[in-house]
Records
---
Amino acid sequence: MIRSQLNETTGFAQQILRALVRLFPGAPTVASARLQMNCGYVYANAANQLDTDPGTPFFANLSACFNAALIAGATYQQFDTVRVLALGFAPQSAPAIAVCNFTIRMALIAQSRWLTAQSFTSRQAIDAYITRVQDAFEPAEITAADSMDNVSYVNLITLKAAVIANLSNTARTLPAMVTLTYPTRFPALYLAQRIYQDGSQSDALVAENLPVHPLFMPTEIVALAPGS
């Protein structure tokens, strides 16, 4: 690898590693300390590892950093910041392009694993994540298709389909939801009494609709269908 390519690729790699470490800004836990150690090792050795052909040790170690971040408790949104960071790069050399594409795919895998581990209670939340998954995978799929990387393309669409199927299956097990519209903003307690004749359901209404304050629910709310 020529010097300009190595400098570009190493620079991108080190930005990604710094982003992973910044996911946990507070006092380190055992897991986040391990993430910092892993990222620090890859950061220090990135140039040497990337200069090997084809740089396999670097990619294996970067993958381990994403796994360490997941173990440390990184969320879907946190991994998305790393994915978007890599998506915003404009790599010129083939090695830099490979690092950016690999980072995006590792972030998608980590997000998929995070989603699979969640216990959802809201169909609305599941629907929102299905949309986010579709939007997140699309750029990576287009990149793989444009570069005629058939293996990566098939892997991406297979993973996306599996994640969406898992979310959809989870949604089907949840109670049916309905959308209700009212002429003004009512308190959650009033709505719970009106819909269910049970004021204890007010917390569920708040959790589902996320109002600014429980005394002022939106005029259009999502609620568990009465009798479900």
---
Amino acid sequence: MNKSKERVDIIIVGSGIISMICVRYCIMQKLSFKVLALDKFVAKGNRHLSITRTTEETLRKLKLWNKLDQKLYGYFNSIKILGDDGKVKLFFDNLKRSKGPMSWVVEERLLHNYLLESVGEDRQFFKTLKIVENTPSGVDLEDQDGEIYSSNLLLITESLDCIKGEPACLAQKKRRYGQLALVGDLETESYHNNIAMKWFLNGDILALLPKSEPNKYSVVFSFTTRSSVDLSKSNLNLLPLELLSEQVGEVLSFENTLSYELFEKWRPAIHYNSLIYLGGAAFSFHPLAGQGLNFSIKNLQKLFAGIDKLNSLDAPDRKQKYLLQINKSSVKDATKLIAFINLIKLFFKLNKSKLKVPHNYLLRLFNKSKFLKNLAVKVAS
């Protein structure tokens, strides 16, 4: 067994965007760190990420957002919410009130490559990892070769089965949504004019996010699992083409598709002694709200703001008091977001004959209220 020669402030486990943002925070706050990754980062297909203005501001402060690169990103100033009849139920037009986009639409590969250029790829790779010791003072980890890594704080940013010794009381809970997500690149006849669109189709949800090209969208379609569907052959036919054509004209192509099952994942707590879960290792949401990455970055911002105020991670009592606050705040916010997502899904799913009149009345009421719509945009940012 080879003992590590030094103890670092923070060990970061993971190789994704959240891991790299943790690295950037460590560099800016002059914290010593080590990154342990299972493998080199591989972008998940052609996934696009919705970056809110608050998140963009955080990335800019971390010097991870280059305005010169913004021409590569899509964005939207307005959102149309459509029902299963293709009619616009809600319209969030933020163009007149906003100094910038409501949200950027960034390809995951582009953002991660920029992060790698900024923070480098100095990482240690492992096959298995065991938590040997986890106390209020710090953490010791051991890899498959017997190498020991020590730190004052351990941040796990990905759910990995090859990590042993994690606290059973913090086990991640999982609930199937009973839906698959289908993502891909859609090219259409009409220009998108930087307007995002979202359809609620009897429980299925289709979102089109404008890309940098004027007639291309990033598609996120969450639909009820159908055992007879062959995703490798019928991706285009899964989309409601007739309804799409009413809004975007003829569909010219639907390419680079990827499908995966949707889960709701959460932990009852994200902190135990000197371990804290972040990103997908802590929570995973339905893509309905597009808040997964943005929520994670908000948690990172709060975590490192507190670490900066602590001045040192060597004081166990002060560290534990602060981590308990972060835990309480993060779990509370995640619970609210999960409840909000499920409430919206249920509201649009209940569009049945007996409920159609009150359902449509509430939508019209919301659509006419500038206050409610401004509040919704603010919360989503």
---
Amino acid sequence: TVSFVASRHGAAVAVTAADDRVARWLTGLRSAWLTNALQVVAFPASWLASKILAWCIVVPLLVFKRVRHLVVYVVALAVVAQLTLLLSVVLKRPRPFGVVIDGSWNGYALPSTQVAVLAAGLVSALYVLVPEGRWRQAGKWAATATVALVGLARVALGLDAPTDVLLGAVIGVTIPLLAYRWFTPNEV
């Protein structure tokens, strides 16, 4: 991120060129059936899926009266969304060059807000709905695989570049993880 803020030359250009090569290569592999499959795989990062996931977290927290977890969830999700939007406006990185974008998008690309919100939602679901132990550990692997597949699909659809997805995932995992560990430790 520092590379993109400090300069529109040097490292930022090199990373963008590498990202664009990867995006062009992946989008070059698309066919009609593969594009349809990629759109299905990328669906969890859509705004509709994000809203469904949010309600699947909020409703149980309300039912079980876990107000502290609910407040941390809402604040963490808001921080993730606002931080990614702020960074995208500051960095002003465009979508991948030279590829056909097959899906809906708006705004700048870095970081991927949709991937960040998906990652934040999955981490939140694990920390507020799944007890500590084997199930949560298995859930972390499932969430990692989901974010990775969705990110790959978004790159193959030309919606994001690899760096956009990676930074979005890092932000989406880090903020809720720290929030839950600091404000809702397992003892609570």
